[in-house]
User: Fold this.
Amino acid sequence: VDPLFKGISHMERIMLLLFHAMILIAMVTTACRPSKAYDVVIMSGEIYDGSGKSSYVVDIGIKDDRIAAIGQLQPDADLVIDANGLAVAPGFINMLSWASETLIQDGRSQTDIRQGVTLEVMGEGQSMGPLNEKMKQEMNLSQGGIPINGAWTTLGEYLDYLEKRGVSTNIASFVGASTVRAYVMGYEDRQPTARELKQMCSLVDQAMREGAVGVSSALIYTPGAYADTDELIALAEAACECGGMYISHIRSEGNSLLEALDELITIGKKADLAVELYHMKAAGQANWYKLDAMIERIEQARTNGLKITANMYTYTAGATGLDAAMPPWVRAGGHQAWMARLRDPVLRQRVLIEMRTSSAQWENLFLLAGTPENIVLTEFRNTKLRHLAGKTLGAVARMRGTLPAETVIDLVLEDNSRVGTVYFLMSEENVKRQIGLPWVSFCSDAGSPAAQGAFLQSKVHPRAYGNFARLLGKYVRQHRIITLAEAVRRLTSLPAENLQLERRGRIKEGYYADLAIFDPETIIDHASFEKPHQYATGMVHVFVNGTQVLKDGKHTGAKPGRVVRGPGWKSDR
Assistant:
């Protein structure tokens, strides 16, 4: 007797056989049922493929993390999106993001995802690796932001840390020239020895092999301001050996703008690599006219064979700290040395004199702003000072009964930080002209916060919430400075090609499924300098590596972001 039927009645045997037969039929049916062709099908969208060419209506099929098919497709997918009337573009690339800290606090990258950004490129002058313990302490003292802990040391470890922690956007980074300088030399105002420079170049090489996309500098800030041209050429050469580029916040965007641009061009020529200009601008009303000569020099260098490009944000104001209103020498030695000098009555008077004196030797944003009313205080570490956020320096000086330059020093000392600051420096006409340049991509030059929690404690620059939507809404739809197809090219394939990224920045079969789906008739920014914590609207759906991160304008909570590594990482394998 079959053990299966032992001890049961005839009727029970029949019921048991029927049960097993039903299971068998279900298994066969499931095995024979064809699987879905795609995970996602986006139907009838107006495709702006990143090439800059005219749009076309077609369907897109996504399988796993890639674009699997483009054409007239059947809605054979687990998720079908009707994109009729919507623009479908490659995910946008933020060429200068300060999300390096905000992503630690909130990996959703809310402000950028809601504008279609799928890749954050970080590391202007300073990067999150390589770091030693002294540097971590200095960053915690001077920045007053997210504490830098012992979770990583190298840049590669930092990028892996973010990916494992979970982020909604993809991430990439330059290695900072200031960072490798501080790692080797500290914050001293001197030139490196031959041995020190060799060690700095070795650190650049290591970061490139860990995935950095190039080396960056920020030459109005310390310790970057202490580096001479030869030092920067050496670091650029180290990046070039791994296929990377050199990108720079040049030594001056104001009084010595053209001379600083010449230095960038010289570095590109001598190191024989592509170069890019961070947040292109002519700062200070007396320098606005220099934009013509700036464009002419860049285009002449391009004609002569140098691959030189630029990026920009779409506002007439920049944002940094009150340290940019003081001469670089006062910050030599790091944060504590800076505070000590400001407390010294003799040195304080020297700083005040130099703040009020025009100079071609350093970038004085205090004077470039033109008036204290064009300087707006935004971020304080000291809770007792946070009521001043959003007020102009002029207003705060009047409240305190002190002169504006003295108020700058007092606030820095009281807050024990650089104090977040917005400076109104540029002209609207220059912003529009720069947007029209075919070799200019776009950046926020900001973190990617959320309109909630601790992020609401400061008055950030509205570019954190609206830079990309502002481009598409104000400058493309309303002012018609460039076409939508051209704007998408400059947000996608142009930066992807400059960074030598594989299978990013275009809508093509086999490319990663990073997609921004938006309403071109309604996309717009809402953040203002008075009320910055307002999300942009008009972005409908966003996919990162094939996973939906934005659905009907709301964040899904998904964190499929990955590290996107530069050419040096590939060459090392």
In short: The chain is about 35% helix and 20% strand.
